[in-house]
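Hi all, a correction to my earlier message: I attached the wrong file for Large ribosomal subunit protein mL54. Here's the right sequence:
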Amino acid sequence: MNNLTMALSLAKQRILVAPLPALVRSFAAKPAAAASKKKKLGKLGPIMEKKVIPVETDATKLVNYVCGSNYLKSGEDIKLKPDSEYPEWLWTLNTERIIPLDELDPNSKQYWRRLRKLALRRNNQLSKLKKF
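and the right structure:
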């Protein structure tokens, strides 16, 4: 009996000193500091931070130049010319509103492109309603 009690006491000491392998975590925990520096993930991946684009406020530059036309690091924006140097069709472009389909000429290319675009939109909306 003496040997049995000694074996049991040794077993108790091992259990108390060394935890069971099933209870020990075998993976490293993420440090809290690294998680806060990382960008948050949305449904489609990391969320992009918005870039603040400087806006030109100088009135003389806004009147004489096409602001934002220079996309290179060196150089400057395009200088505006007098109206007489631009083609006549430029001043007849429709910038006010989209012309409805009823007002377009059925013999024009613009009419048929708009009709095709509307039909594609309608078909896409109808295909969303179908159940598989």
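Sorry for the mix-up. The radius of gyration is 36 Å.
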